[in-house]
Amino acid sequence: MRCDLVDFWTLAARAGWRFHCQYFLYPNPWPKPEQVQRRWHAHPILPAILACSRRTVLRTNWAIYAQEWAQTLQQLGWETNLHTIACTSPDEALTPFEQKYALSGHTLWQVAGTRRPGEAAAGGDHAP
């Protein structure tokens, strides 16, 4: 499926869709400090994203992005696990980006976030 993710998450949250897990799999989105609001954890759509599942996984080669994602989820009451991941063979990579960065010696990071049982989604269970 190809779509505008902001529209997708808005509609999915309004429809009450719940995914088992959502993955965020890219290396370095919007790296400049003035672009932070374009990163998903700082974007206004975050409440709709989080309303759509109780678990998220972010994988990246950018430590600051992983730390920001983990801190945001923690501030919203989610349990997080931030750690490096070993990707020692091409079969272990989830994406071509991950394979490329692992093979070039980059440290890879994963943040697994889980909403605590009974905890409402950020902004409630409905999108704005």
UniProtKB/TrEMBL annotation:
UniProt cross-references to PROSITE patterns, sorted A to Z: SAM_MT_TRMB
Function, as annotated: Catalyzes the formation of N(7)-methylguanine at position 46 (m7G46) in tRNA.
InterPro entries: SAM-dependent_MTases_sf, tRNA_(Gua-N-7)_MeTrfase_Trmb
UniProt keyword annotations, A-Z: Methyltransferase, S-adenosyl-L-methionine, Transferase, tRNA processing
Protein name: tRNA (guanine(46)-N(7))-methyltransferase
Natural source organism: Tahibacter amnicola
Enzyme Commission identifier(s): 2.1.1.33
Catalytic activity field: guanosine(46) in tRNA + S-adenosyl-L-methionine = N(7)-methylguanosine(46) in tRNA + S-adenosyl-L-homocysteine
